[in-house]
Amino acid sequence: MGTKVFAPWDDPNAKPLIQFRNVTKRFGEFTAIDDLTLDIFEREFFALLGPSGCGKTTMMRMLAGFEKPTEGQILLAGQDIDPIPPNKRAVNMMFQSYALFPHLTVYENIAFGLRRGNMPKHDLHDRVQEMLRLTRLEKFAGRKPHQISGGQRQRVALARSLAKAPKLLLLDEPLGALDKKLRQDTQFELMDIQEKTGTTFVIVTHDQEEAMTVASRVAVMNDGKLVQVATPDRLYETPNSVYVADFIGDVNIIEGHATATGEETYRIDWGEGREPLTAKSAQPFSAGQACHLAIRPEKVTITAERPTDADNAVQGRVHDIAYLGNLSTYHVELPDGTIIKAQSANTRRIARRSFTWEDTVWLSWTATAGVLLAE
Amino acid sequence: MTRLSWFNTVSLTLGFAFLYIPMIILVVYSFNESKLVTVWAGFSTKWYGELVRNEAFLDAAWVTVKVAVFSSTIATILGTMAALVLVRAGRFLGRTLFSGMIYAPLVMPEVITGLSLLLLFIGIGLDRGILTIVLAHTTFSMCYVSVVVSSRLVSFDRSLEEAALDLGASQAEAFRLVTLPIIAPAVISGWLLAFTLSLDDLVIASFTAGPSATTLPIKIFSAVRLGVSPEINALSTIMIAIVTVGVITASLVTKRAMVRQQQDEQAAIRAG
C-alpha cells in the first residue's frame, strides 16, 4: 500500500490537459454538442460513452481537428486549439475503420507520421522497431494490411497512432470490429500500453462494459450533453439519474414517493396496499416527492422464507430464469405484475438449484442497497 | 469442363462468326501476294514491307500517337480534378448542373462536338494542326476519365485522408501519398480509355485536323475512298495485333494481382 491513488480530478490544483469550455457544435439545425464543459487530465484513460448519435464522435473529431466548435473553446495544455489544423496538432487518432493505408506495408504505415517530420533516418527506424515490439508485430513488418488478421490490423492502427508520441491519443470505437474474446484481451493490452507510454487516452465507445474495463473515468453522454462524469465504480454504485443507472449495467427501477423518517432515511410508498420500502439517501427529498429507487439485481437476495432482519422484503413468483453459467438472474413477478430481477452466483451445480419456475420466493435488500433518484 | 449442347454450339459459332469473320478476312488478305484485294494469289509479307516505306502512313501514325499521348494525359488530369470536385465538394450551388454538364459530351453526337470545336478554332484564329486535335480529343475524352475516376472515388474511404492529415501530412501530401496511389488503377484505366478513344477517333479529328497534321484514321479513311489496298490491310492487322496484345496483357496483369491478393488474404485468415 502507500501508493498514491491516481485521481487528479479530485485535486483542485491539478491542471487539466484538455478543457472543453461551454462548447456547442451545430450541424445546420441539429445540435450535436450542447454547451458542454469538461476537463480531462494528463495520463487519464477517459471514456466517452453513449448511444449512437449522442455526440461522442463529434467531440473526438473536434479534438482531432476535423470539426470546429460552433461556440466555446477547446484548450489543449492551456492553449486554444481552434486555429491549429489537424496536421499540426499533438493529437493522434485511431480510426474506427483503422484507416490503414492499403498500399503501404505495416512498417511504412507506422513510419508514415514520422516521415512527415524531420526525423533522422536512424531514429526513425528505431522508433518504428520500438512500436512494432510494443504491439508484437515484428514478424509482420513487411506485410500489407490485407495480408494480416483483424486483430493485427487493430494493433497496426494503434502503433501508427502512437508512433509520434502524441500528448493525446483518440480512439474511436477501437475494438468494434473484433470478436468478443479478442476484444477482452485487447482491452487489457490497451490499458497496458497506456500505462507503459503514459499517453492520455480518450476512447469513444457505446459498449458500457468496455468503458468500465479500460477507463479511469467515464463520461456518460446523451443528446449532446454530459449526464454524469465519474469513475466506473461511482458511476455504477451512485448513478446521478435513472438514465445512467439504466445505461450502466442491469437495474431495477421502482417508482414511488419519498417521505423522510429519520436522518437520511426515507420511506417510499410505491402503490396502494404495498408495504412501504426503506432507503437511505444523502440527497434530500421533500415530503411526498416523486422518486425512483434503483437497485442492482446482485444486491437483491432471493430466499424461500421471509428473512427476519431485512429492511425491505417483497414476495413474488419466479417468472423466468436467465442462466449465464456463473450467474443466474431470477425474474420475479410481484402480485401486481411488477418484475424485479435478483441475481445470485451459481455456487452449486445446476441440479441443486434452490428455486425453479413458478416457485414462490421472497426478495430482500438493505436500506443502503439502492440509490434514491429524483429523475 | 462440360460439353456444350448442340444449340449452344451453334449460337456460339454464329455469334463469334458475326464478330470476327470480317477481321479474319482482313488479316488473311493482308498476306495476299496480289495487289487486288479480292483475288488470292499466294502468301506474302511484302505489303508490310511497303508499309514501312510509306512515309505518309508513318507520319500519320506518329501524329496519332503524339495526339493520343498528349490528349489522354491532359484529359486524365482534368478529368480526375473534375471527379474530385464532384464527389468531394459536397452540395454546392449548381452541383447537379455541373455533374450533368460533365457527362453530357458522352451522349453528344460527335459531329456536333467536332463542328462546334471547328467553329471555335476558326473564331479564335487558331491554325488547325496537332494542337487543335489534342484540344478536341482532350475535350471529349475528359468526361470518360471523370466517369471512371468518380466511380472509384465514391467508394473511397475518406478516413484514409483524415488519417494522413492526422499523422501530420499536408493536404497536398495526403493526396499525393495516400489518395492518388489508391485510386491509381482507376486513373490509369481512365488514361487508357482516353488513349484508345483518341487513337481511333475519325469524326472529331476530321473536323479539327489541318493540312499540316493528319491522323491515321483520317489517312486510312481517305486512302480507302480511292480503293482498298493490301497496304491498308497490313496496317489494320498491325493495329489489331497491338490492341489484342494490349488487352491480353492488361487482363493478365489484373487477374494475377487479384489471385495474389486472394492468396494473401487466405494466408492471413489461416495465420489468424
Biggest sheet overview of chain B: none
> Biggest sheet of chain A, open or closed, and with what strands and sense?
6 strands, mixed
Number of domains of chain A: 2
Q: What's the arrangement of strands in the largest beta sheet of chain A?
A: 6-7-8-3-9-10
Examine the coordinates and then state which fold CATH places here, giving the name of the CATH topology of the largest domain in chain A. Rossmann fold
Number of strands of chain A: 20
Ranges of chain B where pLDDT stays below 50 over 5 or more residues in a row are none
Note the main attributes of this structure:
heterodimer; A: 375 residues; alpha+beta; Rossmann fold; OB fold (Dihydrolipoamide Acetyltransferase, E2P); 2 domains; 5-stranded antiparallel sheet; 20 strands; 22% helix; 34% strand; B: 2 domains; 0% strand
Task: Describe what you observe in this structure.
- The complex is a heterodimer of chains A (375) and B (272).
- Helices cover 22% and strands 34% of the residues of chain A.
- Chain A contains 8 helices and 20 strands.
- In chain A, the strands form 4 sheets. In chain A, strands 6-7-8-3-9-10 form a 6-stranded mixed sheet, with helices on both faces.
- In chain A, helix 2 crosses helix 3 and helix 3 packs across helix 4.
- Chain A starts with 17 loop residues before the first strand and ends with a strand.
- The mean pLDDT of chain A is 90.
- By secondary structure, chain B is mainly α.
- The longest helix of chain B has 42 residues.
- Chains A and B meet through strand 6 and helix 2 of A and helix 7, helix 8 and helix 11 of B.
